[in-house]
From TrEMBL:
Top-level division of the source organism's lineage: Bacteria
InterPro entries assigned to the protein according to its UniProt record, in alphabetical order: SPOR-like_dom
Protein name, UniProt field: SPOR domain-containing protein
Residue span, SPOR domain: 130-198
Family matches, as Pfam families: SPOR (PF05036)
Amino acid sequence: MFLRLLFVLLIALNIAVGAWLLLGQNDTRAHFATDPGVPKLHLLSELPPPATTTAHAASIAAPASASPVAAPVATTASANTPQPASPNALSYTCMALGPFATQEDLRIARSALGSEVQRMRARQEQTQQSKGWWVHLPPSATHTAALAQARQLGAHNIQDYFVVGSGDNENTVSLGLFKDPANARKRRDEIVAAGFPAQMSERTETVPEYWLDLIPVDSNHFDWRSRIHDPAIGSHSTGCF
């Protein structure tokens, strides 16, 4: 009798242990499916969508968001647009004044313009200047021939002549030097009418002239004529220095 009871108890104990192993052990191990550090397994339904799908969705959403982004770009472009210059802004242009007849005239002009100019320089140039108009006969081969021409002029009551005895115009009969070309032409025509081959030519010489190059402080309000009253002085633009 005792053995039967012991046998029944062992069977019941085995059934209880088996039930605990089948039912209670699964719930306990559910929290420790993998060892620490080992990636967890996922079902296909649990995986995230492919990258191509995400990129396609982003490309579809891009046009919708393009309009809000365009506004800041337009604002930036307008900020970089050059603004019109203020009417009170200073400006400068390099210019030259002259010609001045003497260095003293140039010095006076520099003193008069000093406060209105930020930079100045003086320069000298050589120029050909007319010294008048010369009426004469063509040069003769010899001095004797030139004297013979002079006597013929006297025979026709033509006065105011002389024979050049040396220099570049040696053996030339001079008939006068004139400032006004109209007077020179009149004299020439009188001699030609008397039967002599009179000629008319301009006489020039090389003379210095002086210029003042300058950069005004403000070209828009630079009135140099209020300080330099010589009507012979002019101005023109020139290269900056």
